[in-house]
Amino acid sequence: MNKKEIIEKIIATTGCSEEKAEMIFDKAIENKDIVARLDWEWVMNRLVIGAVIFAALWALWKHIG
Length: 65
Prior knowledge:
The chain has 65 residues and is mostly helical. The chain is built from three helices and no strands. The protein has helices spanning 3-14, 18-30, 40-64. The protein is rod-shaped. The N and C termini lie far apart (46 Å). The mean pLDDT is 95.
């Protein structure tokens, strides 16, 4: 979940304002109740897409040149 989704869930659960939900989120980050992690699936998807685009451009360049 990203920050926005977590804040929306806090608002839905507690019924507080967005500012208060931001404060709760920041406090949870400080207390390590919420741990930020890198989304490796997203990173790998972008790397694969980049590799496919690079291979296609390289093949096109070799075909034309």
